[in-house]
Amino acid sequence: MPETYLVTGSTGNIGRSVVSTLLSLGHKVHAYTRNTSSKSAQELASTGATLFQGDFSTPSALSSAAQGCSGIFLLTIPGPDAPNFASTALEAFKSSALPDPVVVLITSIFNDEKTSKLVNSPNSGLPNKPPHPFVTGYWGMNDAVETVVKESGFPHWTILRPAYFMSNYKDFNIRYIHWPALSTEKKLVAGVTPETKFEMNDPHDIGVFAAHALVGKGQERWEHKGISLASELLTLEEQAAVISRVSGIEVTAEYMDEAEAAKLAEEEFTGYMWFWQKTLGAKVDMEDMRSYGLSVSSFEAYLTKHRDEMIRALHDTKEGKGGLSTDDLLAAAGQHGK
Fold first, then answer.
1. Is 321 a residue whose pLDDT tops 70?
2. Residue 177: which pLDDT band, with cuts at 50, 70 and 90?
């Protein structure tokens, strides 16, 4: 029997995938968006989704959107208010949802038990001094949002933890943060080792997993689980080789020396992410991923689909802006939509 699900962040990369997957499975979708008149929102409406306008600061709007819904896909805006937004959203949802609802939340792969232990160790594991406060703040924010869901009293919940988005190699603001030398020098430069594997995620795959977690309410594989996600595991050299093959433009991998990598880990979020990756290794068993029976994309398939964008990115040598703006973070989280 068809169910109705509320999808927040519905016009972003992940949200669109959740919506399309739920509709393809025969269910109904209430798509919650900041602007129902936007092109991306109207595209969702044309596929059969019902639009509701609002954000996490308008609980009454979210409560209206939750009428008759059996579950919610929750994608919060990164920032210090995220836990409060999540709490408000879940209370608003609970007030109008059907009995026995399910919650599916997206956070970060770096909120697993091993990373938590490393972040909370002296200097967060670094040799000389703690990382930039943004790092522990970002980790703490995700941890607090996960706690809100776990302690919300909802009978069914699943937390999905993706890592490195394949879209980060082609989208300018995010590409500049993670891979500043990619366009200008045709290099992927990182503070890792040649053996370090990255958990690569196609945003569409994340949405597919989220939709199936909603529909699979009560199934042991989803129930009260924090699941680290990856579409594929690749070293830095393997990533560079894929970009080269797809674009026809040679891209190489370059590794920072240990001192340079440690210094960057103290100063920048991306540097500490690399430190996490190098120290803890890949957190996803691809056999476990395959056990869900859901198709996932390779990096090569993803870039082939977006080949023109990737080529434009490699030729886009304009200087990027420093820092992490709200829009940058929204894009990185897959929530950014027009």
1. no
2. confident
Domain contains 93: yes
- Of 267 and 301, more confident: 301
Residue 34 sits in a domain whose CATH number is 3.40.50.720
User: Where in the sequence is the domain holding 139, given as residue range(s)?
Assistant: 4-332
Model pLDDT, residue 318 = 67
Beta strand ranges found along the chain (DSSP E): 4-7, 28-33, 50-53, 71-74, 102-106, 156-161, 164-165, 187-190, 198-201, 225-228, 232-234, 252-255
What one-letter code names the amino acid at 179?
A: W
∠ Cα 132 135 136 (to 5°): 105
Q: Please give the model's pTM, rounded to 2 decimal places.
A: 0.91
Residue 254's DSSP bridge partners are 189
Task: Give the tokens for residue 20.
Answer: 């399309």
Domains in the chain, number = 1
The closest of 301, 333, 16, 319 to 172, measured between CA atoms, is 319
User: 199 - beta bridge partners?
Assistant: 233
CB 144 within 8 A of CB 105: no
Q: Are 44 and 78 in contact (CB under 8 A)?
A: no
Task: Please measure the distance between the N-terminal and C-terminal CA atoms of the chain and give it in whole angstroms.
Answer: 32
Going from the C-alpha of 166 to that of each of 171, 198, 230, 302, 310, the distances in angstroms are 10, 11, 10, 7, 11
Check residue 113 and give its pLDDT: 86
Percent of the chain with pLDDT over 70: 93
